[in-house]
Amino acid sequence: MQTSIQSIFSNYTKGKSIFVNKDALSTSYMPGSVTHRDEPMNNIANILAPCLRGERPSNIFAYGKTGTGKTLCVNYVVGELLKNTGQNGSIRTVAVNCKMRKIADTEYRLVAQLCKELGKQVPATGLPTSKIYEIFNDLLDGKKQNVILVLDEIDTLIKKAGDEILYNLTRINQELKQAKLTIIGITNNLSFAEGLDPRVKSSLSEEEVFFKPYDALELRDILQQRSQIAFARGALSEGVVEKCSALAAQEHGDARRALDLLRVAGEIAERNNETAITEKHVDLAQDKINLDKIMEAVRTQPKQSQAVLWSAIKIMEVKKEIATGEVYEQYKKVCKKRGLASLGQRRVSDLITELGMLGILNTKIISKGRYGRTKEIKPAVPAQLLDDIKTVLGKDFYFE
DNA sequence: AGGTATTCACATGAAACTATTCTCTGAGTTAGG
DNA sequence: TAACTCAGAGAATAGTTTCATGTGAATACCTGT
User: Fold this and answer.
1) Sign of the four-CA dihedral A208, A31, A260, A98
2) Short-list A194, A162, A150, A168, CA closest to A57
3) Which end of chain A has a smaller Cβ tally under 10 Å, C or N?
4) How far apart are CA A230 and CA A17, in angstroms?
5) What are the two backbone dihedrals, phi and then psi, of residue A26, each rounded to the nearest 5 degrees?
6) DSSP string for residues in A228-294
7) pTM value?
8) What region does A64 belong to: left with phi over 0, alpha with psi -120 to 50, or beta?
């Protein structure tokens, strides 16, 4: 036992690793140069340039699907901009990811977070929203400066908190005497701007920058660039990068996906003590990523939803196609055994539908004539995975 | 045989409740002047 | 005295339940031949 653990560790440290710098494959990695995004980058740079002369640049609205380099490009350009700041007045940037729960997903929290980023701690709760705007205002206007506000995943913020925030933020400029505020909104929701208040829309998207998906060739170049940093020489066999980029190109040209594939393929190869990554590992990586996605979804479901899923799996072990009523009966039993308050049938029906949306169950409404109308529930994942889900629910969540 | 009518077992919607989370207010506390 | 902290009230929100109504087709029940 001990020796085997020893050998795992010594393999890990001594054996020549496939990876040299795995960070280069992570999504937050900031490469020295950005590949195949010249057009939007130049665009952004041109728009932001005036602030080097102390003028206020236009607000920018950047949009494009996930993994098209929006955040990367914006951060890169802003970073370069900061480097070029001479004595011509100061430039500050504040970046917030609005998707972060509990940090910036309401109006109050967002502004509070902004204040914090600007170096002023404010109470997490207790102040009127108007007060916090005041504080924010004072912070900005404290000296002559150009502040660039980067709001990543801005759509989630608006969806949760309404577009009033943007209206307030864009209006702040009129009240500022010394400082100037520029907003860069980033979203991957292409139809996001449609639902906005026209005033907000026009002021936020003074300039729009669209990020189109990468095609397979571009993805290949990106992967090649990153893999040179990430992997040891000779660790990549022929065709691996091509395969990753082709797979990711099918998924609407998502670079994040491509990098994940490559990284996971590498991890799999490394774990198997192999010296090179082959296309076989990419296939395995593809499976693993899908599996992880579903597992994560299962894990993060609320208890009740898990109980419903558990009940459904339990019945599916002996029966292929099952109905809502059967699941509900089983579910009630499970709740009783676990001392969990059980929900009404109406709700359980909705939960089953939700599990269907997640791609764990396959639900279809059918009518069985005289014997009623119900959802026909089948597993939407391979039996093996279903087993894994059952194990996780059974062990980690004590349904067993 | 052919045509209605029933009936089952939920689906689907809307309104009503509830519990939780936010926001706001004012009282109490602190610290600096 | 201004700034801050904090508990508690009221508002907003998410999660559920209750009530009401809708659905599709296998079966039951007629009807006239």
Assistant:
1) negative
2) A150
3) N
4) 11
5) -80, 155
6) HHHB-TT-B-TTHHHHHHHHHHHTTT-HHHHHHHHHHHHHHHHHTT-SSB-HHHHHHHHHHHHHHHH
7) 0.77
8) left
Residue A372 three-state SS: coil
CA of A369 to C1' of B1 (A): 21
Q: Which nucleotides of B are covered by protein (CB under 7 A)?
A: 6-14, 22-26
Evaluate whether A259 touches A226 at the Cβ level (below 8 Å): yes
CA of A172 to C1' of C3 (A): 24
pLDDT surpassing 70 at residue A63? yes
**Nucleotide whose C1' lies closest to the alpha carbon of residue A348:** C16
Mean pLDDT across A302-318: 92
pLDDT digits (tens, 9 = 90+) for A359-379: 899 999 999 989 999 999 999
What is the structure's pLDDT at A193? 74
For residues A112 and A122, the answer to whether their CB atoms sit within 8 Å is: yes
Nucleotide closest to A363 measured between CA and C1': B11
Does position A192 have pLDDT exceeding 80, yes or no?
no
Determine the distance between A186 (CA) and C4 (C1') in angstroms: 35
Measured CA to CA, the distance from residue A336 to residue A149 in angstroms comes to 51
Within 7 A of a protein CB, which nucleotides of strand C? Answer: 4-8, 13-14, 16-20, 22-28
Q: Judge whether A66 and A213 are in contact, CB under 8 Å.
A: no
Contact A74, A155 (CB under 8 A): no
Nucleotide nearest A344, CA–C1', reads: C17
**DSSP 3-state percent helix, strand, coil across chain A (nearest 5):** 55, 15, 30
Q: Quick check: A350 pLDDT over 60?
A: yes
**Coil/strand/helix, residue A201:** helix
Of A1-15, A72-86, A91-105, A220-234, minimum mean pLDDT range: A1-15
Q: Which residues contact A381 (CB under 8 A, 6 or more apart)?
A: A294, A359, A360, A389
- Protein footprint of strand B, defined by Cβ closer than 7 Å to any strand atom: A 102, 106-109, 125-130, 161, 323-326, 328, 345-346, 349, 352-353, 365, 369-375
Confidence (pLDDT) at A117:
76
Q: Are A73 and A186 in contact (CB under 8 A)?
A: no
Q: Measured CA to C1', what is the nucleotide nearest A128?
A: B24
The SS3 assignment for A190 reads coil
Amino acid identity, position A240: V
